[in-house]
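Quick note —
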Amino acid sequence: MNLALRTHPKTTIFSTDWASSAALWLRAIWKSVTASKYHQTKEEMEAEYEIIKKSQKNSNYFGPIYQRYYDPIFIFINRRLDDEEESADVASIVFFKCLENLHKFKFQGVPFSAWLFRIAVSEVNQFFRRKKKHDRAVSIQDHHISKLFEELE
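Predicted structure written out below.
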């Protein structure tokens, strides 16, 4: 019998084969992992859901949601569009659609941000579909053209 030894700073695992020792090692690591600062605890999600329920009844309570998620949504969109003005426009559409469809949101044990980012992905895709229909020209700035000519010489 060939024993495999897999070590981790917090655990030492003995196993008869590599696959089962790897599975045990991953389980041990998974148990020792703590949530990152980007994940919400159950209590935070429930508190957020209370704000969402208020917003569903009265749109005046939407402000805290907008303030909390505007920057992450804008950054997410801007990384895909690489244009701040267009990103701001798409972000405003995302929050408009969020507010318009907030009554459809139902808490299912996942953060509200998942629903909001799904709207953002949809709007980014829609942006590129619209742009594809209307944009047929490529814009090259002057400093790019001079670099191209320098490379050709």
